[in-house]
Amino acid sequence: MSLTEENYLKAIFHLINDEQTVTINEMSKFLNVKMPSVNNMMKKFAEKKWVIYESYKPLKITASGIKQSALVVRKHRLTEMFLVQTMNFGWENVHEIAEQVEHIQSEIFFDKMDEILNYPKTDPHGEPIPDKDGNIIARDLLKLSSCKVGDKVTFAAVTVSDDDFLSYLNSKKLELGQEIEILEIENYDHSMTVLLNGDSTVLSQIVCDRILVKA
Question: Number of C-alpha atoms within 13 angstroms, CB side, residue 46?
Fold first, then answer.
């Protein structure tokens, strides 16, 4: 499988909806690739039975296509976890490295990584790691911004993992597994005053939208 094919599969993983479909336009925007190029690749995917391709209709992703896309993401997320847990990288520094490592084609390489990590269920950002069959354990998480005053929740994941955002969370000493208590919600801009490690701090609505918690 080529690097380009894996990048398209990863895009499918992130874009697929509940009807198991993705549009050519969504793929084009996500990958910053022109639509004719996406069309050509999806015709190749149709030959491999990863998608059902019909002109001017959303792509229907087959069970095989869903599995293949999850396995690419599995390699990426396992690598991120390995870099953090075993090599002591910060969670804000692993994405670009994982982007390179994920294209290694040796299955046994990632199986060994999984074994060394003791088969983690989530990556350093709290996102689920697909298993060897491409299955993902569903979790019931909600955005911090949907919580109300008085709620006590546990920081479980982030919806975006760009360096700037994760560095911001580091500056607030916010880590996965921490308890967050909502003390106040500002009516005007919906920013939250929360209690972390015994100290209160203010988080903007944008930040609260990007933090996933469990009750």
Answer: 13
The pLDDT of 151-170, averaged and rounded, is: 92
Q: Quick one: pLDDT at residue 179?
A: 95
User: 0.90 cut: is pTM over it?
Assistant: no
Reply yes or no on whether the pLDDT at 163 is more than 90.
no
Residue whose C-alpha is closest to residue 8's, from 43, 101, 83, 17 = 43
Report the run of H or E that residue 181 belongs to, with start and end: strand 179-185
Report the alpha-carbon distance of residue 45 to residue 48 in Å, rounded: 5
Rounded to whole angstroms, how far apart are CA atoms 6 and 71? 9
pLDDT of residue 8: 96
Please list, residue by residue across 1-37, b when 16 or more beta carbons sit within 10 angstroms of its beta carbon and e when fewer do: eeeebbbbbbbbbebbeeebbbebebbbebbebeeee
